[in-house]
Amino acid sequence: MRWLSAPLRWYGSVYIRQPWLFIFLTLVLCELLAAVYLLSAPKQYTATAIIMPIIADKPDQRLLGGDSEQGMASLLFGGQKVPPEFDRFMQTLVSRSLAEHLLAKPEFVRALFSDEWNPGTRTWGQPRGLMASVRAAVTRAFGLPGYTPPNIERIQQVIDDEIKLRSGVAANAQVVTYSHEDPQAALYVLRTVISENDAINREQIAQRIASLVARINELLSSTTDLTMRDTLIPLLVEQRRRQLAVQSDAPFAVDVIDPPTVSAEPTSPKPWLILLAVGAFAVFAAGSAVIFRITLRGLGTLATPSQ
């Protein structure tokens, strides 16, 4: 690193003797570093979908897949409570059960961690790319745990960190986004996460309903009490209706009102935004350093007794 000593000494002398040149050089240096980052950083494409709760005025209608214009308008403008199935969908989006289910899909895991999969050797390894190499070097330097192949915890973490949700135009709509280096992988991952999470919720509710139906049938077969039977039979009919709804092919918890689409151009990094932000920071930092030096020099002059 001896070759750096002469440029650093010259840079230090500019700082002391030519403050405006120092600020300009700092700006140029920081912008060059930002340009290097932009050239090496992977381009990200964003897939976007809009989801809403399944709409219905009455529980029977929702369970049977029906809806109405009145129910739609009510939910759009916030006049109707969000169905519990939708709340459950939002909570299980980052659940261990979903991550475990997705881990069993090799194609999904390879799309999610595409920079770690080697198609030639069909093995997992350290992510490729300059930034990944820098992160690996920092990890080793600080003695942090090394590379771990994709597992349940990592899938959970990626979904939690990178599947973004924000409120849509309608009161209960959610805009769901996911960014990836490969636009088709971004589209596939987002579509799969939404559909598989909905399927898991359907399956879990179906198991609960089946258990309840079995219990009601058991009680009906073991009792001759007419009052009890009059109570159990309507309950059994209701659960059978729920079974029909859960077993249908229609979406269970969410309506994908705008299917996933992917951006035609990269959405990240944003070159002009990064260059402007880095330039503003460089000017501020260099200017602050110059002001600090001038202030210290002024204080030193005041502290020196006059002759």
Give the topology, please:
Blueprint: H1 5-17, H2 19-40, E1 45-53, H3 59-63, H4 69-76, H5 84-92, H6 96-103, H7 106-112, E2 117-118, E3 123-124, H8 130-141, H9 152-162, E4 164-167, E5 174-180, H10 183-222, H11 226-247, E6 254-262, H12 271-303
Antiparallel strand pairs: 1-5, 1-6, 2-3, 4-5
Helix pairs in contact: 1-2, 2-12, 6-9, 6-10, 10-11
Model description:
By secondary structure, the protein is α+β, with helices and mostly antiparallel strands. It is 62% helix and 11% strand. It has twelve helices and six strands. A four-stranded antiparallel sheet has the order 4-5-1-6. Strands 2-3 form a two-stranded antiparallel sheet. Helix 2 (19-40) packs antiparallel against helix 12, helix 6 (96-103) crosses helix 9 and helix 6 packs across helix 10. The longest helix is centred in the middle third of the chain and has 40 residues, at 183-222. It starts with a helix and ends with a helix.
Quick rundown:
Among the domains are: 2-41 and 269-303, no CATH class; 45-113 and 150-198 and 254-262, 2-Layer Sandwich (Bacterial polysaccharide co-polymerase-like).
How many E-type strands? 6
Which second-level CATH architecture of the domain at 45-113 and 150-198 and 254-262 applies? Answer: 2-Layer Sandwich
Low-pLDDT runs of 5+ residues are 57-79
Measured by DSSP, the beta-strand proportion falls in 5-15%
Strand order of the largest sheet: 4-5-1-6
- What is the ordering of alpha helices and beta strands? HHEHHHHHEEHHEEHHEH
Distinctive features:
single chain, 307 residues, alpha+beta, Bacterial polysaccharide co-polymerase-like, 4-stranded antiparallel beta sheet, two-stranded antiparallel sheet, 12 helices, 62% helix
